Amino acid sequence: MMVTDPWRLTLAGRPTVGQRATRRRTTGMRDVELFAEMTGDRNPLHFDAALAARAPFGGLIVQGGVTSGLLNAVVAESLPGPGSVFLGTEWRFVKAVRVGEAIEAEVEVIAVRDDKPICTLRTTVRNGAGEPCLTGTAVTWTAPLRDAANPKDISSTSQGGVQAPPRAED
Questions:
Q1: pTM for this one?
Q2: Alpha-carbon span 47 to 66, nearest angstrom
Q3: Contacts by residues 157-161 (CB-CB < 8 Å, ≥ 24 positions apart)
Q4: Among 116, 130, 147, 163, which residue's beta carbon has the most beta carbons within 10 A?
Q5: How many angstroms separate the CA atoms of 117 and 115, rounded?
Q6: 34, 43, 50, 79 from 28: Cα distances, Å
Q7: What is the Cα 44 distance to its own chain's centre?
């Protein structure tokens, strides 16, 4: 029986161990407002400048979801790429990100499964000074978005070969 590469139907193909991708942005109050609108997180450390100035962070900080959200973009857009979703994450928020601070999210492939389009990533978000703000790992699954009958076809209307993501422990 011939074993088929489970990565062949993914849009970006099989990642390699050691491969990296990054994404940068400068945070802003609009990020805080949009995140609060979506989630209801209106912690005064994000909105009350006078109170936040007296806190250990010395000023307004963005929600952790704003910080980690940049990793979502790296995973979905760059590495492993389109069709990728998180199966699990293990993150530590080691330094707050101030409103107006530039951040860079980086993922590095540390393991790739041969039997499923699943990989493990080292994840880091650093501030403009290069200090880590978030560190940890993530496990991703990449949907087979190419049509199995025509693997070169990447049309957005093709549904061939799409399966539900496996559980992280599979």
A1: 0.83
A2: 14
A3: 161/9
A4: 147
A5: 7
A6: 10, 16, 17, 25
A7: 26
